[in-house]
Specification:
218 residues; alpha/beta; TIM Barrel; eight-stranded parallel β-barrel; globular; binds erythose-4-phosphate; Transaldolase_AS; Transaldolase; cytoplasm
């Protein structure tokens, strides 16, 4: 399973990268806005910096256009920033058409804002490299986000779809574990749930005892 960090914050990306477990980054317009990056030049430079930090990992950069021609033009510009850029396209009719065009023109895509198995089937049919079901937002709406990951994983396996399931909108460390169990190929998470995976009180108690005992012979 691949680990992506879901942020545009350079310090957090560096911290996850230094942990040695980072396979890529996802961003979205809200995450970019949070970093206060303004104007196309600055935004594109920010994406390039993220690509430099993660070196070989995929970096999703989202289009903000909603018509086919505009999505294609914007996506081509985003893809030209760095070979590791994945063009993130929303699950709308024009988006599906654009994903097919990008697939046919060797530009990798991440189909975002996916909330149902039907949408995930369309993304795979259009040739998206990644499909992003938003499990946290589904849970927030009283539906079961993890159940959706299982359903998509089952369908993709049965049908032989190559699209990778990128579990997005992660809210907790438990979400990460449950997504792994449910068959997600990738999780994208904020830094905190990733670091939360490190924690267990018995680890802390055990280490304190080992260090105390070590004083007896060191
Ligand atoms: C990632 O690709 C998504 O844009 C992101 O995970 C959405 O997360 P949120 O629901 O916490 O905004």
């Amino acid at each position: 399973m691949k680990f992506f960090i879901d942020t545009a914050n350079l310090d957090q990306i560096k911290e996850a990268h230094e942990l040695g477990i980072l396979d890529g980054v996802t961003t979205n317009p809200s995450l970019m806005a949070k970093e206060g990056v303004k104007g196309q030049e600055a935004v594109y430079k920010h994406y390039a910096t993220i690509c430099d930090i993660v070196k070989t990992g995929d970096v999703s950069a989202e289009v903000v256009s909603t018509t086919f021609n505009e999505i294609i033009e914007e996506g081509k510009k985003l893809a030209a920033i760095h070979p590791n850029i994945i063009v993130k396209v929303p699950m709308i009719k024009e988006g599906v058409k654009a994903i097919r065009w990008f697939t046919d023109n060797n530009i990798a895509t991440n189909c975002t804002l996916v909330f149902s198995a039907g949408q995930a089937i369309l993304a795979a049919k259009a040739g998206a490299k990644y499909v992003s079901p938003f499990i946290g937002r589904i849970d927030d709406s009283n539906w079961d986000g993890i159940e959706l990951i299982s359903q998509i994983a089952h369908i993709y396996q049965l049908q032989g779809f190559k699209t990778e399931i990128l579990a997005a909108s992660i809210r907790s460390s438990l979400h990460i574990v449950k997504c792994a169990e449910a068959g997600a190929d990738v999780i994208t998470s904020p830094l905190e749930p990733i670091l939360g995976l490190l924690k267990h009180p018995l680890t802390d108690i055990g280490l304190a005892k080992f260090l105390e005992d070590a004083k007896k012979f060191v």
